[in-house]
Prior knowledge:
The protein is mainly beta. Helix content is 12%, strand content 41%. It has a 6-stranded antiparallel beta sheet with strand order 4-3-2-1-5-6, with no helix packed on it.
Amino acid sequence: MNPRDVLKYEMIGLEAEIVDAKNKSLIGIKGKITDETKNTITIGTKKILKEQVTIKMKIKDKTAIVNGIRLVAKPEDRIKKRNKI
């Protein structure tokens, strides 16, 4: 799956796992994304800053790894804007 395609999807409800992070204690957190704001995602009950993590997400039986800095935007704006990789 092309990482550019991931940026167009609604993230709430997707299975996600933190695979790299500035704060190493966040690595390995996994579960469903339950909320998203401009700067954070919530996985289960953990609120995580997007810009500090690399996230592996599962969408329609495919997996994509995305640097969280690419996700920093309001969800509705991120879905609408054209992304260059």
